[in-house]
Design brief:
The chain is α/β, with parallel strands linked by helices. Helix content is about 50%, strand content about 15%. The structure holds NADP nicotinamide-adenine-dinucleotide phosphate (NAP).
Length: about 270
């Protein structure tokens, strides 16, 4: 049998939403796809479709090393890493137990960094590679009662920018994807985190308003396939941009944050509190 020269991608968080759609997008384009999930029984359909699958909890350093070794042992290369796994945490900063904040950063920040550290020696050795980090509109703008999530995505953005500059000379590109609202299970999972808050009554109204706005925007949000297309583009174009903003809501919010004076938004939040 002729050797397979098709490129290889490793994707985290493929049990649902954007990760699942991204695995299918790369598969359709002829890539060898390593789709991973905490529980591999969630992705048996992706295995049936032709993906290689593996169990991967991004907070487990041993599992990360083992999966990357498996990829390289079987396919002898790793062209792209898509750090997609992530979740949102609701609540005012004062209300969030620090353990919950730490858990948020473990998944959204330290997981992607550990994965990047595991694949980079192979990419450097090959003189090429791409790391696509799925951030968010909240990686650029921070809203009240979303500080934990926005903080984690802002941290991911800063680390990505440094990494991009560091790896430019060794042929590795690091790219950020910044979607607006996407119709996935994200919103429901975010609300599950509210049960862990040390609630402060004064923030209740603001939290409910932001919750309502987010539910509304997610209902009108884009399909995960739209983000998967953008991730695929970022992974496959010759010279990728540093960041890809996906969705009109993300574009608008980032623009508004730049042009609307802080005094105006602060006045608005005082009225809403
Ligand atoms: N939906 C949106 O509106 C939106 C907007 C901007 C950015 N994003 C970002 O897009 C990414 C994907 O989110 P989504 O919208 O597709 O939400 P989703 O449907 O809830 O998918 C999140 C994925 O992350 C996985 N995950 C969570 N913790 C993990 C861990 N410790 N190890 C490995 N996997 C873990 C989940 O796996 P389990 O099933 O095992 O929990 C799931 O597969 C996230 O980084 C999110 O921040 C989403």
């Amino acid at each position: 049998m002729a050797p397979d020269h098709s490129p290889v991608v490793l994707i985290t968080g493929c049990s649902s939403g954007i990760g699942r759609a991204t695995a299918r997008r790369f598969l359709d384009a002829g890539w060898r796809v390593w789709a991973t999930a905490r529980d591999p029984t969630d992705i048996t359909d992706l295995a049936d479709a032709g993906c290689r699958t593996a169990a991967l909890d991004v907070t487990d350093g041993g599992q990360i090393d083992a999966v990357v070794e498996r990829v390289v042992a079987r396919d002898s290369r790793i062209d792209c890493l898509v750090n997609n796994a992530g979740y949102g945490q609701a609540g005012a900063v004062e209300e969030i137990p620090v353990d919950q904040l730490r858990a948020q950063f473990e998944v959204n920040v330290f997981g992607p960094v550990r994965l990047a550290q595991a694949v980079l020696p192979h990419m450097r050795g090959a003189g090429s590679g791409r790391i696509v980090n799925v951030s968010s509109l909240l990686g650029r703008v921070a809203y009240p009662t979303r500080g934990a999530y926005a903080g984690s995505k802002h941290a991911l953005e800063a680390l990505s920018e440094s990494l991009r500059a560091e790896t430019a000379g060794v042929g590795v590109d690091v790219v950020l994807i910044e979607p607006g609202a996407v119709r996935t299970g994200f919103e429901d999972r975010l609300h599950e985190t509210e049960s862990t808050l040390d609630e402060v009554a004064e923030y209740g109204r603001l939290r409910r308003l932001v919750d309502r706005a987010q539910r509304l925007s997610e209902r009108r949000g884009m399909a995960p396939e739209r983000v998967a297309d953008e991730i695929y583009r970022a992974a496959s174009v010759e010279r990728p941009e540093r960041r890809y903003v996906v969705g009109w809501d993300a574009r608008l919010a980032i623009l508004a944050d730049r042009v609307v004076p802080a005094r105006v938004t602060e006045w608005l939040y005082r009225r809403l509190a």
